[in-house]
Each structure stands twice: as C-alpha cells, then as structure tokens.
UniProtKB/TrEMBL annotation:
Domain of life: Bacteria
Protein name (record): Carbamate kinase
Signal sequence extent: none
Entries under NCBIfam families matching the protein: arcC (TIGR00746), PRK12352.1 (NF009007)
Pfam families, A to Z: AA_kinase (PF00696)
Cross-referenced PANTHER family: CARBAMATE KINASE, CARBAMATE KINASE-RELATED
Length: 314
C-alpha cells in the first residue's frame, strides 16, 4: 500500500457537541470520519477543541466553590486537563468501536494528557480577550476580580464574564512521548483544547490562566511530528471570500501568497476562519511539500483524496 501519509487532524467544536449526551452521540460520527482516513492509508493524530466542555467544567467547579468555600477555586489549567481526559475517553471508545466494526486491528488508541508551554511575556497576557465561564452581576464580577484576580468584562449587555489570554503555543511538553506512540503505530489524541497552558518557572511548570487556540496547537504538533498534511475541520466545506455576501466565492486551492492577500483584505473573520487560515499558512511555510486542508468533518475522506475542501500549498 506504500508509505502512510501522516496527518494531524484538528477537530472543531461541531465534532463533539455541547454537553455530555451530545458528545457521546457526536463522537460516533467523528469516529467514522477518522476511520475513513485510516482506510485511505493515513496515519492520524487528533487534536480537538474543548470550548463547551471546559466551560461546563469551569462553571461546575466554580459553583462548588461558591457552595462550599472550603473547596478552593479550580485553576483553568486544571479544568483543561479534566476536559482532555473525558473527551479522550469518549473518543477512544468511539474509535475502538468503529475500527472493530470495520475489522481494523492492531491500532491502539491513546489519549495523551498534554501540557503546552506558552511565553510568560506574551503580549496576549496584557490584553486578555477570551470570555469563559458563567455570566455575573456587577457585584459578583467585582468580587471575583478582588478575590481571584480575574479580568472581567461586560459582555454585550448580558452580564459580566471573566476573560483570559490566548497566547500562541511555544513548546509541547509531552512531545517525545507523543512521537514515541505515533511511531509505534498508535492512534494518538493529544493537545486537547490546545493543550494545558503552562509557563516555565525555572524547573517548574506553572499552570497559566489562558486558552490556547487548538488550530495553532495542531499546527505546532504537525510540524514537530513531521506530518505531511494538516487537516482543519470546521463547519463549512471550503473557505470562501466575501463570505455571506452576494459575490461569495468558494476556494478550492489557495497559495500562501493568495491566503496572505485575503488576510490583508480582512476576508476571514477573527476568532473564526482567520486563525484556521493563519495556522494553515504557518504549517505549509514550515517545510517544502507540506499541505493544509480546511473542510467539513464529514468530507475529510474526500478532502484527502483531493475531491473537496480548500487546499493550501506554497
């Protein structure tokens, strides 16, 4: 069958649902799309988002602290670790089941609880922008700011929310372990939610109040594992220019220079398509011959065959 193509797959939020029952159902569909790639002779490493899940955990742990003050406030980094474990648990089971249904053997599935080092001096820490957690009154927000040092903002007239930084990932702490598992032929789930954000304090790694974009985490992992392709799965089949306008146009192929031109024209929405295109550019530019694909979860197989999706190359 020839050499397997090594792919890092970045799963969007639609791949996991918004709550526990939805997730248990969603991962079955997600597993089908991933196993499709295995049948196309691909070696797959999975990175997933965790927005709804880490929010749910953060809210639950915050409620516990408010109900019983003897329970200390749970750091965001710990909430991310919890989300990695329980999302990995559901994904592992769904993947194992789907492989058994298709008669695929000898591919163990492993979730690696992954820390991601970020730069403590990143400008992102000076201007936190990512809202997390539940809505609060002005009084509750002021109390949280004073008691825990949270940065709080008023959110569109709906109340006050905590905001945290979103720095770029710098180093995958468990990289050697991940690489060893991948080289052993295992299907690895890693860097969940962008990774557990940590900063270096000498020999100690300290959890950071931050959220790392999972597309940039997947990009870094793909580079470090010398992947052939980075596939970013999202809610649309292809990238578009003039999105939502009468002159909207879908893009099949895009060079790095074309992608940068479109970014300069503000064609891609911040917090939505923009980071996906930026991560794709970063991966493609990192080494000759690398390709990034942006497409729907259900179209991953067609995407890797070149039949759909937006393909980004040098």
């Amino acid at each position: 069958m020839g050499k397997k193509k090594r792919i890092v797959l970045a799963l969007g939020g639609n791949a996991l649902g918004n709550n526990l029952p939805e997730q248990m159902q969603a991962v079955k569909t997600t597993a089908k799309a991933i196993v499709d790639l295995l049948e196309e002779n691909c070696e797959v490493i999975i990175v997933h988002g965790n927005g709804p899940q880490v929010g749910m955990i953060n809210n639950a742990m915050g409620a516990l602290t408010r109900e019983d003050p003897s329970h200390p406030n749970t750091p965001l980094s710990v909430c991310v670790a919890m989300s990695q474990a329980y999302i990995g648990y559901d994904l592992q089971n769904a993947l194992r089941e789907e492989m058994e249904i298709r008669g695929i053997e000898n591919i163990p599935v492993t979730t690696m609880i992954t820390q991601m080092r970020v730069d403590a001096n990143s400008p992102a820490f000076k201007t936190p922008t990512k809202p997390i957690g539940h809505f609060m009154t002005k009084e509750e927000a002021d109390n949280a700011a004073e008691k825990y040092g949270y940065d709080m903002i008023e959110d569109s007239g709906r109340g006050y929310r905590r905001v945290v930084a979103s720095p770029k990932p710098v180093e995958i702490i468990e990289l050697r372990a991940i690489r060893s598992l991948v080289d052993d032929g295992q299907l690895v789930i890693a860097c969940g939610g962008g990774g557990i954000p940590v900063i270096s304090k000498g020999k100690y790694l300290k959890g950071a109040s931050a959220v790392i974009d999972k597309d940039f985490a997947a990009c870094l992992l793909a580079q470090e594992l010398n992947a052939d392709c980075l596939i970013i799965l999202t809610a649309v089949e292809k990238v578009a220019v003039n999105f939502g306008k009468p002159n909207q146009a879908w893009i099949d192929h895009m060079s790095v220079s074309e992608a940068k031109k479109y970014i300069g024209e503000d064609q891609f929405a911040p917090g939505s398509m923009l980071p996906k295109v930026e991560a794709a550019i970063q991966f493609v530019e990192s080494k000759d011959g690398r390709e990034a694909i942006i497409t729907l979860l259900e179209k991953a197989r067609e995407g890797i065959k070149g039949d759909t999706g937006t393909h980004i190359r040098k």
